[in-house]
Amino acid sequence: MKKKKGFTLAEILITLAIIGIVAAITLPSLLVNVNEKAWDAQKKALHARLAQAIGQMNSLGGYGTYTKGETDAETVDTAAESFILDALSKVYKINNVCGPDKLSSCGIPSKITTLDAKSEIDFPVKISGLNTKLLNGAHETGEDGNVADTKAAAFETVNGESIAVFYNPLCSSDTSSNHFAQNKMCVNFIYDLNGSEGPNQVGKDVGFITAFYNKNPIVVAPEAYNSDYASAVKHYTEDSETIDAQSACKTMGEDLRLPDRDELASLFVNAPLINLGESANGYWSSSVISLGTSGLAWAQGFGNGSCGRNSRTLTGYVRCIKR
User: How far is Cα 119 from Cα 273, in angstroms, rounded to an integer?
Assistant: First the structure.
């Protein structure tokens, strides 16, 4: 009689052990990829909804009260909470609003990890906590607008996102000269897609969206790539072709591009979140002012927030963002 062949118990156990080991190695990376794709889709949808809502407002400036006192106790500050309740909630569905002292009640984490995953920082609670340079420089005085160091408020969306709002009621509209990022910033949103639940890291479940200009606002949500281009490059146009800086991003990755002027300004506003350093030469944008070999393009300084019209004879650094 022919004996039937089969697997022994030992062979089955060894096979199951191997499957378990392979699963333990591969599943975490698969789950990360799935999460990141879901986050990317959620980020784009959130940006689109906020941009549409802000586009329905007549202006972004002047909500609430901000009167700076000698001490925090004397300072009257209802700006961010008033912007949410009196402006944003009229055009955007909001579940819950939290004042400056109760951000955690809206799911805002106390700490977040920076883009490079090297630092854990306290979640900013006022405009100066975003970037101390927002309160420095020539932008603070004159007709071109000012910056109020208001406290953040927060809200939760119907989709479960937690969003902190940093609001500058003194923001100005766009101008072709004396362009500083600071006083053009009207509202900066830092969101956490899943509330205080981890990983609470910029570039994953945490990101930012910025609305510039009191009149005719522009809403941007740049996703910074975690690296600068290695060296300074020129950026200008000959006829219609953009040279050097634009191609530098393609060199670093096909899914990367050069940010425009307002996207670069948003990176400046949120510089500590992405550990963005300073450059004396500034960072090039894709916003070109004039064509030709003597053409000009906007370049954002991260030392003082000024955005200048640099010529092709100058060099600057490149910070790419995801397409």
Answer: 9
What DSSP character marks residue 80?
H
φ, ψ for residue 299 (rounded to 5)? -130, 130
Q: What is the mean pLDDT of residues 293-314?
A: 75
Determine the Cα–Cα distance for residues 85 and 78; give it in Å rounded to an integer. 11
- Using pLDDT thresholds of 50, 70 and 90, give the confidence band for residue 5: low
How far apart CA 22 and CA 47 sit, in angstroms, is 38
Distance CA 265, CA 218 (A): 11
* Nearest CA-CA partner of 276 in 285, 265, 287: 265
The distance in angstroms from the start CA to the end CA of the chain is 69
Peptide bond into 222 cis (omega under 30): no
pTM of the shown model: 0.85
- Assign 3-state DSSP to the chain and report helix, strand, coil percentages, each to 5: 30, 25, 40
**Using only C-alpha atoms, what is the Rg of the chain?**
24
Tens of pLDDT, residues 14-56: 778 877 777 666 655 544 555 788 999 999 999 999 999 999 9
Q: Using an 8 Å Cβ cutoff, are 296 and 286 in contact?
A: no
Q: Which helix (H) or strand (E) holds 25?
A: helix 9-55
Structure tokens at 288: 């070109």
